[in-house]
Protein: FAD/NAD(P)-binding domain-containing protein
Amino acid sequence: MNTRIAIVGGGVAGYTAIETLRRSPIQSDIKLIWISPKPSFVYKPFLFDIYSGYRKLTDYTFPFKSYYQRFRIDFSPGKVKEFLPADTTLVLDSGQRINYEYVILASGEERVMPDILTSENSFLSNTSDELQKIADHLDAQFQLAKKQLSLLRKPFLSIVVHGNDLYSVQVLFAIYNLTDYIRKKYDLRRNEISISYVSSEKDFGGDLPIKLRDILEEYAKDHAIDVYLHTTIQKWDDGKLVLSNGTVLETKTFITNGEARLAAVYQNAGLKTDQFGGLEINNFLQLEKFYNVYAAGSLINHYDWHKKERVWHTFSNAEDQARLAALNVIAEIRGKNKLTYKPKNNVEFIPVNDQLCIGMYGDNVYFNSIMNYTRVLLAKKYFWQLTMPE
Structure:
């Protein structure tokens, strides 16, 4: 009888785990069960291009159907409503119960809007579902501003981007480019638009390496982006954002990647978490209490237990973690020694416009074409299998 392995999640981590298991020497002896709330794969590192208005979301969204049919993978659409690790069972929101012998959790963290910031003018930036809402909202704001434009042509349109990490910086530059695209559409001037970046971290982009952080912060300031660091949001009322340093920003557009939290389904299962809210796992990416449960991606990506610090290269870590989790499942089935996970110095890049990328590999900072070339290579790496004809 084939060993049943369930993979929860349809992002980079989930897809990498599936590919690793599918290509393994024991592929004929295992049954893969793939659980994802959406029937398609979105390549998130290229969300910058979509936010910026350079490309459409459909350009980087690929249906799973032909892939899982071609390789005979059981695909179950839906979210996990209940996780019963003691019973080796997953219960989906459709009511379907899935039994497994091993499971790899790669469904990602949940992002929520803090209550103090909830408004019709506030948006989460970390999901593809929010992309169109943000674009439509900004277009409407620019259209209204154009109608109300006075002869004095003073600055009037304010946008605030909030966050504490690498991704929030990517969103900041993407929004800058998107507003540049929209303002030309409505014949507005750059100095009539104010963009601010607010972070509770003392450094720009949080845990970015110093070299990369300094270059990106300088780039932001050179493009008239107001940067407010080491400050929190105290209040947002009637279009006024009050910061803890006393600054008041008037805005009708607030964009944030929200607060990360572990999904309720895992909290209710009584799983242990680390100090940053990620699932607590050992060096083999297993849960200590349930050795047939592995986890990868942003579920655990809050913390690097080797360096005792938060990680900043989340995308590349998610891929490595998922691959190693899958390899360790294979090792267990074959009775072999498992591998220890250690974060690598992966290429990390931040696009700042359609021509320029700034990124790092190890201690070296790279500009322009080499980073764009890397983005294309990474994209092809993930897309080729999903775009093959049936």
